[in-house]
Amino acid sequence: MKLWLVRHGQTQANLDGLYSGISETPLTAEGINQAKAVGDMLSHVAFEKVLCSELGRAQHTTQLILQQRKIPVVTEPRLNEMNFGDWEMRHHRDLQRLDSENYAAWCNDWQNVIPRNGEGFQLFSRRVSEFCASLSALPKDENVLIVSHQGVLSLLIATLLNMPPASLWHFVIEQGAWSSIEIREGFTTLRTLNNRAICPPVQ
């Protein structure tokens, strides 16, 4: 099985530096161009399936990548970004001023402190791990496109490589690029990270 990983295109919240976990924030013009460019890069890959976050920015990116290709798209909530609760669509400068104690605690212990009314890293990590485990049910020779978010894809890579969850910070997932992971006989290989080349035909 080969997994093709794509982060959604740039959003206005990305530009504004806001925490936009589960909040809906549209792609910018640059984000639309990034998604179309990735579609061109992966136009020769014969995807059997597409798994996509249910959030609009990922759904829009998926549509732009696939264009007119008739490939089944499965909306997968476990691919949603982490829920930042009351911190959604807020800048860290605002949080340092308006919720300073809780925000400082989270910055010092982000794996265990939960944003007010948010999801927290432990629950987030658990659902991404459950998603990774579910991949074993897919046919072994499929090419699967996964369109999701920075946190999810970084954690997905770390999990599939049997690294601790905190290792997600080692994998920065850039917009306008594609990455790939190959799983063969239970062994996982990170084949490429943040590639911007046109991929040759893959069956």
Description:
- The model has no long low-confidence stretch (mean pLDDT 96).
- A hairpin with a 2-residue loop joins strand 5 (178-184) and strand 6 (187-195).
- Helix content is 34%, strand content 17%.
- The protein has helices at residues 12-16, 29-41, 56-66, 92-98, 100-108, 121-134, 150-160; strands at 2-7, 49-52, 73-75, 143-148, 178-184, 187-195.
- It is of the alpha/beta class.
- The protein has a 6-stranded mixed beta sheet with strand order 3-2-4-1-5-6.
Order of helices and strands: EHHEHEHHHEHEE
Q: Strand count, sense and closure of the main sheet?
A: 6 strands, mixed
User: What Rg, in angstroms, do the CA atoms define?
Assistant: 17 Å
Q: By helix and strand content, what is the structural category?
A: alpha/beta
The helix fraction, in percent, is 25-40%
Q: Indicate the proportion of strand residues.
A: 15-25%
Note the total helix count.
7
Distance between the ends: 11 Å
Spatial order of the strands in the main sheet?
3-2-4-1-5-6
Number of DSSP strand runs: 6
What's the rounded overall pLDDT mean? 96
Shape: globular
Unreliable stretches, pLDDT < 50, 5 or more residues? none
Question: Which key terms come to mind for this protein?
Answer:
single chain; 203 residues; alpha/beta; 6-stranded mixed beta sheet
